[in-house]
Here is the input.
Amino acid sequence: MIAQLLLVIAFLGVVYAVAKLVLFNTRRPGEPPIVPCYYPVVGHVVQFGIHPLNFLVECKRRVGGVFTINMFGQPVTIVGDPKVHAAFFEPRNEVLSPREVYAFMIPVFGEGVGYGASYGKMREQLSFLAEELSIEKFKNFVPAIQHEVREYTKSWKGASGEINLLDEMSALIINTACRCLFGEDVRKRINATRFAFLLAEMEASLRPAEVFVPWLGALPSAAARRRNDARNELSESLAKIVMERRAAEARGETDFQGSDLLGGLVRAVYSDGTPMSLHEVCGMIVAAMFAGQHTSTITTTWTLLHLMQSCNKRHFAKVKEEFADFQPQIGYDDVTDNMPFADQCAREAIRRDPPLIMLMRKVMTPHKVGNFVLPKGSVIAVSPLLTHADEEAFPDSRTWNPERDFNKVPKAFVGFGAGVHKCMGEKFGLLQVKTIMFTLLREFDFEPLGPLPDPDYHTMVVGPTKSQSRVRFVRRPAASSK
Here is the structure.
């Protein structure tokens, strides 16, 4: 009897999966063209997972710049035409909502933080961050970043040696971000290697498939247990720092170095008069570090790796010529106003291999995109990976060329997002990247130990394949005497 029941359930499951597949392959009037799908349940997931860039480019070639694919049975409309990007980036959360598709991030940041809070509260939390990420507070960052780079590279023993560039940039980004954003007192108490490990443990637990199969998030897993352990360890150490800072400010001690994002969060009060809780402050610190650490690490690593390639000797010479105009100790204005080619190099690294390859929203009300209308409840996405491969906007798109015209097609470059959700950390991230580049390239020579790495499309935030990112450094004589 049980066996028969299981057979019936299995049969009904097959019928349901096939029916959903047939329904997906039936285009409804007014909706975008569909990329035909022949695999029940998984849809296009396997093809996307093997090589997302090749898959998306082929879809666009076959059916046009706006198309719908099948991800675990969920139709996802990709806006791959830069000319209609505004339909994705401009609407407010009440029209195109990120919360539903990024709910899998809540266990990392914590309930009540970011997408785990109401939209009203989330906007206030983001405004607390924005207040501290102001240009005026950036003025003292460059000397602090250079100090951290020089202190950290003392651990590179000898006049020459080998390092994993991705690992080393990850630690450097954490050190510099902590020093600038949270003050020197916090920086001295944070072990960058351990911090990076804990962030990596949390990232490893993220399963974007939960966007399309929500019940996956309820299943126990070893990755989820490691995430919770990492989150608890990080929260405990941050909570001690936050409570000590609150006690110091209560005693009238407010002279902390850095922009002091920590102090801003400690003092933050919502519009209803309620201060941020200890849990929320810790969650926002994790969110700020999580959001910026990966992207800045990957951008710095890719930029340096590209400059090392023999095919880019002319670009490398141009960067070194630009850097040669400055004294070893530089300032904010030097980095922001007088390093335009270094800025182009960093942006081109993001353009060619964007760390975030898919940005998604849930359609909360019928929404027009170009000549099509997306139904309520569907998912809409922009893929920076696909858009940055647009040959009209970026000719010879897989070639790293920092001299290219980024404005050939307006709004085609979306490496920092756009519209209401544009990355608020763009200026700080580029300040970090360029200052680290300048300091390293003035004090070291580098050479790759292999060809340019492949992008690692198996990670949540896509960077160069770690095992292919080893390089040789040679300390310049002038640097060793500092």
User: Anything to note?
Assistant: The CA atoms of residues 57 and 386 lie 6 Å apart. The domain at 73-480 is CATH 1.10.630.10 (Cytochrome p450).
